[in-house]
Amino acid sequence: MAAAQTKASLVKVSAAPNGAQRLTYKVGPFNIIPGQNDIGYAGMDQKPKVDGWITRIRPDLTYVNGKVPRVDVIHLHHGVWLNMSRSDATAPGLPERFFAAGEEKTIMSFPKGYGYEYEATDRWLLNHMIHNLTPVPTKVYMTLEIDFIPKTSAAARGIEPVRPIWMDVRNGSIYPVFNVQKGAGKKGVYTYPNDQPAAYAGGSKRNEWTVDRDGVLVSTAGHLHPGGLHTDLWMRRNGARLAKPACATKSSAEARKRCKQSAPRGYGSNAHLFRSDAKYFEPAGAVSWDVAMTGTRKDWLVKVRKGDTLWTSATYNTKRGAWWESMGIMVAYMADSGPGHDPYKRRVDYPGDPTHGHLAENNGHGGEKTNLPDPRKLPDGHRIGGGLVDILDFKYAIGDLSLAGQNGRPPVIPQGQSATFRNLEGDADRRYHSITSCKAPCNRRTGIAYPIADGPVQFESNTLGVRTPAAGSTEWETPSNLKVGTYTYFCRIHPFMRGAFRVK
Known about the structure:
By secondary structure, the chain is an all-beta fold. It is 2% helix and 41% strand. The chain contains 1 helix and 32 strands.
């Protein structure tokens, strides 16, 4: 989609710590079409009018009346803020990606004395993917709350500039996602790319970056999708080894324990720098966006050298379900100078704190009873071996649990045969759909924790559509090797859509 110049206006000014001003800008409004799940671009025509330093960023999404939408209704799938006036450190062919957030709404902040340098002539572009989970059109604003210190302010004296270091397990991809199957990995835990031998298919390791100059990492936090447990940031230095703790054997047991706890973490020449944990407020656990990621402590400050390799990984829980189109991103910020710790001599990966608490827009957990039928108890529907199931107007034409009569019953596919699902809205209408297996009866209320891809037999169409982020096809065939039984499914993009088919 071509970049659109949208109106951006300053809506609020207030005081912030360390002599900064807290400025809130809104960008839009964006006209959100029914079921929207596109990647779009918007130029930001208004920003601070003077040079200065940004020390904190908090993103949000609001309706035109200022109310924050429920995450299970409409949410920010991702937002990436780019500075078109600079080049990206880890992907030089791209503009500088200086901040990013998703449904978890991570807040970025720097320790006192550090800031992202801003020039009034900088050109900003917002890459956004606003996801409308409903068939109802609406309008929303993106908001960006920044703590800003003008360069002419006394508070600006001595601030050390930082630059963003974008670390991503699929760095450089337009839509950097990977799939996590139920039960994958070891003991219900799957780490990408470690547990995917073909992650990079013999090409360059997209999760790695060679440090281009000496410096100090000052902060980072992670980005995951539902099911995610944590992202990790590592450093590898040729010839380096982690120091062993010189704990006095005659000291007390408590002193020896503290000594070992302060020892550097990692293995071989790989030093562990930080684990950004997903702290779920969701009662059902790691199955929703009711989550906050942890960020580094103010005293993290890790020394790096030119030639070091930074690399990252993302870990998901696979006991509950599959997680299609997952992500693993960590944006770190690096200064060229300043005090710091050697991760090969002392521990630096102490746990951080969540960047925010539970958000009210995440209260719609879902899973309550509805009037939808249990498809296992319904009589047979149409016989469709080798036939078509069209998707139109947010419904599966046959087998949709919301339909009455014959079309609402599970259509029958003879064992050994397949049926083809066809998304009639996946091209010109840009309405993307999926057929994703879920545990029967899969008929409870939609929320941020229900339904999930927890079918005992997994099948997945990928996102049916012809444009990114879709898979490039509007058709998908059911597996021909399914055993006799009733199979339930939902649409990951619009999870109120539920359906079933029967193999006989």
